[in-house]
Amino acid sequence: MVETILSYLPKRKKGQQLKICDLTCGGGGHSEAMLMHYVKEGKRNKEEYKEGQAKEGQDSTGEVTVYGVDQDEESGKQTRERLGKFMEGVEGVKFMGINKNFGDLNCQDFQGSQVDFVLGDLGVSSHQIDLPSRGFSYSHELTSSPLDMRMSSSLPLTAADICNEWSEEVIRKVLVELGDEDWRVAGKIAGSIVERRPLKTTGDLVDAINNVVPKWSKKSPRKGALKTTSRAFQALRVAVNDEVGVLERLFEKVLPEITKSGGTVAVLTYQSMEDRVTKQAFTQHYESNGGIRKVRKESIEKDLWGNDVVEGEKVWDVVNRGGEKARKEEVEVNSRARSARLRVAKRGKRLE
Ligand SMILES: C[S@@+](CC[C@H](N)C(=O)[O-])C[C@H]1O[C@@H](n2cnc3c(N)ncnc32)[C@H](O)[C@@H]1O
After folding, report:
1. Per-residue pLDDT tens digits for 218-276
2. How many C-beta neighbours within 10 Å does residue 101 have?
3. 337 lines ligand 1 (CB under 6 A)
4. What is d(CA 275, CA 185) in angstroms, rounded to the nearest whole number?
5. Separation of 199 CA from ligand 1 center, angstroms?
6. Is the CB of 151 under 6 A from ligand 1?
7. Measured from the CA of 103, which atom of ligand 1 is nearest?
8. Which atom number of ligand 1 is nearest to the Cα of residue 76?
9. What are the Basic and acidic residues biased-composition ranges (predicted)?
10. How large a percentage of the chain has pLDDT more than 70?
11. How far apart, in whole angstroms, are the C-alpha atoms of residue 32 and residue 270?
């Protein structure tokens, strides 16, 4: 959905410093596309400026910085080096890497000011999935990988800790709430995990799941073992990386603070939890002197004319209600895009 994302980028104006933040830089695909977008825009502006056709306030003097954030030290380092080199000597467009959890960002990370555009491409990267040492994959070729699943080595909990130390009931809840698993199936998997302790490798977890889940189901292929395994791995990954807590922190504190009034935030979600948290933040967060709070639609009172009566201002103005899905051609090239949804909102009026 790169083209769609690029269409939301702000235009560079004369003398203006644009700051763009890629919250999930990963292998740098999106960061690189955004850098190239501004390199091309700069060239176009320069030509038009030379030929005296520049539109009001537009020339090539505005500086653009793309900040690429990732909590993964290992893959983040490679990307930072690659994009840093890639941009060497390019006028007017800069790349800066930040190795940090996006739930801990503040304006100091962007040289003390707010940013104009933020992109989040949530979840785990294909590079991380393919690395045997990380334990994200349930592929039969990687069965001896450690049951880790941390996106950063600084995180305190591994998937093995959850499988070997958490109670059966809590593991069942994790599978249901973070993996969208059926309650009955989740109970069987949690029981099998506890019975097979200690689990050390991804193969041990796959075996614990296969032990209780039929390989395929005629009635419902969704319940086949592969889908079940994928949901269980997703649930554990979300728990290990505290993805719900970090997303809530991102929407309640980080994004309202780091995004300029009128600035744009675009979030690509891939699973129901991520999409629910993003949608609720964009539609239900209100800001008053008491800070940011969530106001559920059902609890909003109406005045005589049917207008909502809520104290404070909306933090976000939704730009694409319902979000956007990937086009068929994109899904054909990249199967991950099938479940992607892009939600975009603008930072509302800021309280003084
Ligand atoms: C889906 S990949 C992004 C791929 C990237 N857009 C690209 O074009 O290559 C998600 C990346 O976000 C990172 N990530 C996930 N949660 C994060 C968090 N809370 N803070 C910082 N980085 C995070 C992961 O380490 C991973 O590299």
Report:
1. 555 555 678 899 999 999 999 999 999 999 999 999 999 999 999 999 999 999 999 99
2. 20
3. no
4. 24
5. 27
6. yes
7. 19
8. 27
9. 46-58
10. 92
11. 21
Pocket mutation for ligand 1, best pick of 4, 24, 270 (most atoms within 8 Å of C-beta): 24
Q: Six-digit token pair at 352? A: 């003084």
3-state helix, strand, coil in the chain (%, to 5): 45, 20, 35
Instruction: For residue 218, count other CB atoms closer than 10 A to its CB.
Output: 8
Per-residue pLDDT at 95 exceeds 80 = yes
Q: Which tens digits make up the pLDDT trace of 21-67?
A: 999 999 999 999 999 999 998 888 777 766 666 555 555 557 899 99
Mean pLDDT of the chain: 90
Residue 187 near ligand 1, beta carbon < 6 Å: no
Say how many Å lie between the CA of residue 80 and the centre of ligand 1.
13
Q: Which residue has the higher pLDDT, 217 or 297?
A: 297
Is residue 70 in contact with ligand 1, taking CB distance under 6 Å?
A: yes
Round to whole Å and give the CA distance between 312 and 37: 37
In short, whether 79's Cβ falls inside 6 Å of ligand 1 is: no
The domains found in the chain, sorted by start residue, are 2-122+243-347 (3.40.50.150), 132-240 (1.10.150.170)
For position 141, what pLDDT does the model report? Answer: 77
Ligand 1 centroid from CA 99, angstroms = 11
